[in-house]
Every structure is written in C-alpha cells, then in structure tokens.
Amino acid sequence: MSIYVKIIKSFGNFVLNTEFEAGNEILALLGSSGSGKSMTLKCIAGIVKPDEGRIVVDGVTLFDSDKKINLSPQERHVGLLFQNYALFPNMTVEQNLYTVLKNCNGQKNTKERLDLLLESFYLTGLEKHYPGQLSGGQQQRVALARIMASDPKIIMLDEPLSALDSYLRWQVEKELTEILGKYKGSTLYVSHNRDEVYRLCKKVCVINKGHSEKVSSVNEFFNSPSTLASALLSGCKNYSKAEKLSHNTVHAFDWKVNLRCNTFIPDDTKYIGVRAHRILPFRMGDECQNKVICRVLEIRHDLFSVIITLTPQDADPKKEFSQIQMELPSIEDNFVLPGDIMAVNIPIDMIMPLRK
Amino acid sequence: MDWFPLYNSLRVALISTFITFFLGIFAAHYIAKTPRLIKGVLDGILTLPLVLPPTVIGFFLLKIIGPLGPVGSRVLEVFGFKLTMTWYSAVFATTIISFPLIYRTARGAFESFDSTLLYSGQTLGLSNTFLFWRVVMPNCKQGILAGAVLSFARALGEFGATTMVSGYIPGRTAIISTTVYQLWREGNDALAYKWVFINLIISFIVLVTVNMLENSYKQPVGAAKDHFEHED
Question: pTM of the prediction?
C-alpha cells in the first residue's frame, strides 16, 4: 500500500505545488491555515482537478496530466474524512453505513459487515440515531466507519479533531489512534496542530504557502527542523537571521551576538532558531555556554509556566526577530522586573541552524 | 351556484404546478452549477415572467400559439385543434408565470446545500444519481416544496395572461379570477362576494402551508457543527 503525489494547481495568485510519498504509515501534512493542505486532499480524492501532475495509489494511476488520466471520485477508492464529517443528515447511523456497504460489495453478507462495523466503532445502540443527535466524537466514529465500509485503499483525514472542543478532543484522539492503528494502508493526516501530529503520526510533510517540503520523520522534524517554516510549525518561538562564521560559530544579526554552537552548521544557514524552554537564566559555571545580556520587556504568567520576553542589549528593538522568549516552569516573586538587565544562557547544543 | 370555475382553477393550477415542479428543479439544479456570467444571464431570462406584466406574457403567447402564430397554426393544421380559447390554454399561461417562483426557491435550496455531503458521497463510491435523489433532494425538500406551493398559489391567482389566451367562456374556460371580473361587470355583487371569499380561503391555506414548510426548513437538520478552532 502506497501513495505517490506530485501536483500543481493554481488559483489566481496562489500556487499549490506539492510532492510526497507515503507507505503503510501515517503521514502528516502539516501547515498553517490556507497553506493548501485541504486542497491537496481534495485533489487526491478527485473533487478538484489539478492543473498538472500525477497521483498514484497502490500502482493505480488516479490522475496523470500527461497521459490524460483523471478517474472520477467514485473510481478512486480513496477515503476522505471531512472536517465537518459530512454524514448524510437525512439518514440514521445505520442507513449511512448500509448505503455505502450495499453499494460496495453488492448484497452479500451486508448485515454481518454492518454489525461488525457498528461493534468495532463502538456504535452499537446508536443505529437508529440521526447524525444531529450525536456528539462530535460519535459523529466522527460514524464517518470513519462509513469510510471503512467503502473499503478504501488509503484514508485521508482533514483536521479530524478541529471541530471538537478541547474537552472531547483528548478522548476522541485516543479512539482515533486505536482505529488508525488497526488500519493497514497509508493514511494522510492533515493538521495545523503540532502536538496532535507528534502524538499520532510517524512522518511529517510540511506544506508552506502551497509548497511541500521534504518528508521527514516526526523526531527529526521536532528535534532538528531544517527550514524556518518547519521550525515555526514545530512550535519554535525564537529566531534570528544568521550567518555561518566558522564550523562552530554563527552570527545572529537580529540579536547582534556571535553564538557558539556544537550542532552541524550547513553553509546555506540563513536563520537560527532556539526553543523558548531551552533558554535559561545564566548561572555561574555556565561559562562554556553562550551568555547574552538582555533587557526584560515583559513577564507573562501562563497556566503552567512563566514566559519572559527579553531583547538583547545591543539589538534594534524594531527588528522583526529582536525579541527572545524564555519559558521557565516557575519563578520566585520579584525574580526580575520589566526593565531589568538579565543575562541568559543559550545552550550551545540547543541552537537549530535553519535554511530559508 | 355553478362550481365549474373552482374545478377549472384547481385543474389548471395543479397541472401547471406539476409541470413547473420538474422544469424548475431541473433548471435550478443545472443553473446552480454554471459559471457566474452564464448563471446571471439565464437567471435573468428565467425570472422575467415574475416581473413582466402578465399582459405582456399573454401578448407573446398569443403571437406564438394563436391560430396565426408559428406554433398555433402548425398545431391547427396537423392536429386540427386550437391552442387558444380552451381550458388548457390557461395552463400555458400559468406555467410560464409561476415558473420563476419554484425555480428561484429551488435554486436557493440547492445553493445553500452543503456540498461536502455530495463530495463525501462521491468518494464513498455512491453514484451521482443516487446522491441527487437520496441526499440532495431530501435535504432540500422543504425549500422545494415551499416553492411548489407558492407557484401553485400564483397559478391559481393568475388573471392577465390567462384571460388573454383562454378568455372567459362560462362552463368552458372560466376560472375564479375571470369569474369575479365578469360578475363585477354584470353588477352581481352577491355572487362575486362568494367567489372572493372562496379565493381568500384557498390563498390563506396556501400561505399558512408555505410558512410551516419554511419554518421547518430553517431548523437545523442535524448537520455537523461547522466551527473551527485555530490554535497556535
């Protein structure tokens, strides 16, 4: 089971240009809103026709602009879970599933398959309910069961948890993990939420303003993102334009400091990124690290942490990336106050060199 | 009292509603999908009967289906019957005049239909025909029915074009509206009042029905919550 996608589609000024491949695994398509993730899924499903490119699932070409192949959505056998689940509101749970089962494998043992689906998606007892009478999580299970009823070669999930409130989300995510774990084919998981991707997926393909980046493993993506866009999506808060000075030093333009760094620095490094919780107050004994003298701008108390916004002493505060956010688990009262001068430590192994 | 005008009015209105029901849905379904410019032009043409004076429609109809018109003369020649001054002439007039009402309400219903339902059905392998009859139509039902009832009411109340193409022949082409006019001309107020009263009752029932249909249409049919949370 595999999927290969390479498509180009333009809408006015926006150009979607994605290329990726996935095997029997969950591949996340991660990008901010409007980056073209959902459009990519619609192209694969056959709802939107790409301008050019090729889509191959399990060796079957679904779309090929050169060979003029463009299968209808019905012929593609691709399961797509919509953001709003798209259950037929005029049919009960049972009818929603039965319609698809009957259409897919004729009349034979439809009843048994229906019961099996109801059972494995924890829908027993809800057969006679209409979608409007179900909770968000239940609707999602029905939608997933209905997709499985159609025997899809791959399944695609479009922000499956975004329509749920945060209370329900955790429970539904657990169920989703279980369901996806049982599925043997390729799964594409569209999301803008990095935490979800980290917990649910094995591989990540970042889509930034319509362009897809190289597929990387989840660990690689979170530990050492290679571009500014993927670092932003992975939740990194601090950036500076940077230039490689030597094999172990970079100059951070926005912070006006030279930083030592023990990770590999590629020659085409344009930015560096540092995660907020990796920056620490400078203490005695930290001499072999990077000491940066900063002015405290603001102290914000978050639920389980404190975020201190700083600006390096020599930096031009008007510049885009001149601020540094430091996230500490907690601080003592009057630890620092806005306006104070404070030395921070940017550990040499926590600097991530980034390409554009 | 001669009940023929009531019978004839209902007959004409029902037949023309039956015709506009299918024509209107067909037109609405295809036009809802066309590009904007074509949609605008076709929409204008199909909605014209709603704003034109019925006498203008009647005039055009007479020019076409009258005994000297291109269609009317051909039918007279080949089949030997006239298309004007008969009870079914009124059907031509009321069909044209009531068409925009069902067409527009049906189009509105199709356009507000959540197209992800259609797309999800397609990706699940269900045929477009199946989806149209089992998913699109049931979810647009109230809107379309309200349009049909309105168009029935309009057909029942038609006077201008009908009187031009089918005239007023007691017991043959008379309908309620033309009968009231005739009775008023004759000064027979007592009978005119009876027909006016009958007409009021029918119109009132129709409007209450439309209202009830529209109210149930506005209630959520159980579509999934469409709210997105954007974090980060």
Answer: 0.78
